[in-house]
Specification:
The protein has 142 residues and is of the alpha+beta class. A hairpin with a 4-residue loop joins strand 1 and strand 2. It has helices at residues 49-57, 96-106, 111-122, 129-132, 136-140; strands at residues 5-16, 21-33, 64-69, 72-73. Helix 2 (96-106) packs across helix 3 (111-122). A four-stranded antiparallel beta sheet has the order 2-1-3-4. The chain has two domains: 5-73, no CATH class; 96-140, no CATH class.
Length: 142
């Protein structure tokens, strides 16, 4: 049976420019997650949990090994997986509506369709659309 997610001997080394040495952040991670399984990654701060998830998402390339999703090698971020970051990750220079539309724009969805879908997702009636044109900070302080 094909794994939904598979990590095969994943390693990640960071170059330390000051010392011209390498720091191993991830070493030899092997993991298989089958469709429908629920997995938690736990460990102390700084042990590589977020780093590993960034490699799984394709945000950081592994130094060695590989990640497969549905049998396909992960080489970059894709619409079949996502990471929810620990810190707020809104783009402060975009409006509320712009932040929601961002993913659709990355998928090359047309501007009109992206706006319609984003307003639907936000559950905002057309009469309140001006609220969505505010910055995220303006909305959170209201």
């Amino acid at each position: 049976m094909l794994a939904k997610l598979e990590a095969q001997d994943v390693r990640l080394d960071y170059l330390q420019p000051r010392t011209n040495s390498r720091l191993r952040a991830l070493g030899g991670i092997d993991l298989k997650v089958m469709d429908g399984e629920f997995v938690s990654i736990v460990g102390p701060s700084g042990c590589g949990k977020t780093t590993f998830l960034s490699v799984v998402d394709g945000l950081i390339p592994a130094s060695a090994g590989r990640i497969l999703v549905d049998g396909r090698v992960v080489t970059k971020p894709g619409p079949d997986r996502a990471v929810v970051f620990q810190d707020a990750s809104l783009l402060p220079w975009r409006t509320v509506l712009g932040n929601v539309r961002y993913g659709l724009e990355c998928l090359k969805v047309g501007a009109r369709e992206a706006r319609e879908r984003a307003t639907t997702w936000l559950g905002c009636p057309a009469s309140r659309i001006t609220t969505l044109m505010n910055s995220p900070a303006a909305c959170s302080s209201a």
